[in-house]
Amino acid sequence: MNAPVETIRDNLRQVRAAISRCEKEAQRAAGSVKLVAVSKTFSGDEILPALKEGQRIFGENRVQEAQGKWPALRERFPDIELHLIGPLQSNKAAEAVALFDVIQTIDREKIAAAIAAEQKKQNRKLKLFVQVNTGSEVQKAGIDPQEAAAFIARCRDVHGLEIAGLMCIPPQHENPGPHFALLRKLADEAGIAELSMGMSGDYETAIIFGATQVRVGSAIFGARPPLE
Q1: Which residues contact 201 (CB under 8 A, 6 or more apart)?
Q2: What digits encode the pLDDT tens for the residues 178-203?
Q3: pTM
Q4: pLDDT in tens, 15-50
Q5: Buried b (16+ CB within 10 A) or exposed e, 133-152
């Protein structure tokens, strides 16, 4: 069941307040953590209350789904910043570079090459993140932590990509803290400033560990359909 409009607005306010509180507790500057509202599976009508509340940064998992709803929303709200936070197939690179402002899920050579080619072809420069599989989970996307430094170097030196940040999704039933700490360590070693980590259940912890972006969906929009 879709969350009522007022519920979405109230949820968004509560998440923003929690982010502000965590920034203070971690002795970080106010506004140093960006909120990426994860709108995957939700319709344009469901996203609208968040837009009217001033939210402008959104995350989507699938290129095709995003193509179906964001062009119309962008006509009304041209300052939207759209992040791809789901796995990218190389055959969708052209559409992804055309639609998104940020791609958070670069995790293999083929994708790095495809994005580099499309940025040049379309004369677009996106903000790019490397996804790290901090738990080394076989079923999960992301570069293995032991290979991250070399892969980041290849993205920069071979493909000419500017890597702005690292992203991770910790294993579901583990303490996320050590995974956030590992991502921060890898970022520091690579001279990378931005960290996209933390979701609805653990974003407050992620802020303590240095997240510069948190990806929050269900805590704003409500539960997703069971099949998603």
Answers
A1: none
A2: 999 999 999 999 999 999 999 999 99
A3: 0.95
A4: 999 999 999 999 999 999 999 999 999 999 999 999
A5: bbbeeeebbbbebeebeebb
